[in-house]
Design goal:
Layout (H helix, E strand, L loop, with lengths): L25 H8 L5 H26 L3 H25 L6 H24 L5 H24 L11 H4 L7 H20 L1 H9 L1 H6 L4 H18 L1 H20 L6 H25 L5 H19 L5 H27 L5 E2 H9 L5 H13 L3 E4 L2 E4 L1 H24 L8 H7 L5 H14 L9
Antiparallel strand pairs: 1-3, 2-3
Helix pairs in contact: 1-12, 2-7, 2-10, 2-11, 2-12, 3-4, 3-5, 3-10, 3-11, 4-5, 4-10, 7-10, 10-11, 11-12, 11-13, 12-13, 14-17, 17-18, 17-19
């Protein structure tokens, strides 16, 4: 007799295995990623991809203006507008579930929220972060109260307004996706056309004001585009998570470039990729909410950028710091060997005693000596060190840079000779040939010596 399978009933908590879902096959994955899963799925994927591109582009300016949290206040300020638009449309007999009607209401209170933040910040002189917190919490509280009223209405249960809080991409209609795409396209085109003006205000607002640029108008246009993208993303990721789409792609792109144009392009790519992959995963795994998955994809790209970016990434920075520490330690040892005995060999015991005065342990001295010997800076014979031609040249240069920079600080910065050694000890390793020539020329002119041609 075969035992009956266990059932989930009273007193039995469901297991994680019971809550799982089957993984899709390769054919299904390929069909989804190549937009062959069906018209509705393709439309939603294209819409969320375009939303990610728009959010990445517009979010760059919010990041540069240090107003990333403004998007958070905006998203929360849209909730009262959504609820009031539904209530007003129901009162006058208009279809309240229309996404266009709800987005108009969201945009209206979003703009009111921005204006309120600016008014609180400028007139009572409240800090901007405090103004953002006030508007965010008050508007969201008003929205929750209005939402509770909507749910008691005869049509409230059919409104589905709660999906705007957390997002519900799967419930998106084709018309909703097209409307979201149109709004995002308007924002992208406007941001590209106003790139020069936005860049000027973002990087040097004071210069823009004194040269006659309408900074307030440009700032208002910038915030309007943020409102547009925020409103467009409500259906896809919800008002709580839409702020992530405006912040994470630009923040991730910042690790890869120092130029604004490339920042905008890379942020658009990251945002579009996040929307594309997140909606694809949600289509393949229907129980996974698309909005949260889209944000997780963006977070994964940010983590990769933070770790692996070639110049600003954590690993690259750690490597550069380690390389610089090695260079400084190498130069210190070569300088000491050069000053002690430029052409003669030095016993290892004397080298250890010499480096101990710098705080080096015997083990560290032995390790560095071995590495320097392998790299051809010194030679080791019978327990003694001798500088090679390469090591001697480097040691002489470091010693000369030390004396040169020390003399420059004493002569030009009016620093006492007893106070310059520590800073000189750090700077002497990074002086370029051009800077050394310039220092020599300046000191020669000051001392009345013939300096030749100035660099």
């Amino acid at each position: 007799m075969t035992a009956a399978p266990p059932q989930i009933g009273h007193g039995h908590a469901p297991s994680l295995a019971a809550a799982g879902e089957p993984l899709p096959g390769w054919e299904e994955i390929v069909q989804t990623l190549t937009f062959q899963r069906g018209f509705n799925t393709t439309t939603v994927m294209l819409g969320t991809t375009l939303l990610g591109i728009g959010a990445g582009v517009i979010g760059c300016y919010a990041l540069l203006r240090k107003r990333s949290l403004m998007a958070d206040a905006l998203s929360h300020a849209t909730l009262p507008g959504i609820a009031m638009a539904f209530m007003l449309s129901a009162a006058i007999g208009i279809e309240g579930k229309s996404m266009l009607v709800l987005l108009i209401g969201a945009a209206t209170t979003g703009v009111i929220g921005v204006v309120t933040i600016q008014a609180i910040h400028r007139h009572p002189r409240v800090r901007e972060d405090a103004a953002i917190g006030i508007v965010l919490s008050v508007f969201f509280g008003v929205g929750i109260v209005l939402l509770s009223i909507v749910q008691t209405m005869s049509t409230g249960s059919q409104g589905g307004l709660s999906r705007f809080i957390y997002g519900q991409t799967a419930a998106m209609l084709t018309t909703d996706a097209l409307l979201m795409s149109a709004i995002t396209l308007i924002a992208i085109v406007s941001a590209v056309l106003l790139l020069k003006e936005f860049a000027l205000v973002s990087f040097n607002e004071g210069f823009a004001r004194v040269t006659g640029w309408p900074v307030t108008l440009i700032d208002l246009l910038m915030m309007s585009l943020i409102v547009l993208v925020t409103v467009a993303g409500l259906q896809a990721v919800g008002l709580i998570l839409v702020v992530a789409m405006l912040i994470i792609p630009p923040a991730a792109a910042r690790f890869w470039t120092e130029r604004l144009r490339w920042l905008v392009v890379i942020a658009a790519i990251i945002g579009g990729l996040s929307g594309y992959l997140g909606s694809a995963v949600s289509a393949l795994l229907p129980r996974k909410p698309a909005g949260a998955v889209i944000v997780l994809c963006a977070g994964a790209v940010f983590l990769i950028s933070m770790l692996l970016a070639p110049r600003r990434g954590v690993l690259a920075q750690a490597f550069h710091r380690a390389a610089l520490r090695w260079k400084i330690a190498r130069d210190h040892m070569l300088e000491q060997l050069c000053e002690q005995a430029e052409d003669a060999t030095i016993p290892a015991s004397q080298v250890r005693a010499m480096m101990r005065r710098r705080g080096w342990s015997s083990l560290r001295t032995a390790l560095f000596g071995s590495v320097l010997a392998l790299q051809g800076w010194v030679s080791r014979k019978q327990g003694a060190y001798a500088l090679t031609d390469r090591g001697r040249d480097r040691g002489q240069r470091v010693s000369r840079n030390h004396s040169l920079w020390e003399q420059y600080l004493v002569s030009y910065a009016d620093i006492a000779p007893s106070h310059v050694d520590w800073s000189v000890d750090k700077v002497e390793h990074v002086l370029s040939d051009e800077l050394v020539a310039e220092l020599e020329h300046a000191l020669a002119v000051r001392n009345g010596e013939p300096a030749g041609v100035a660099p």
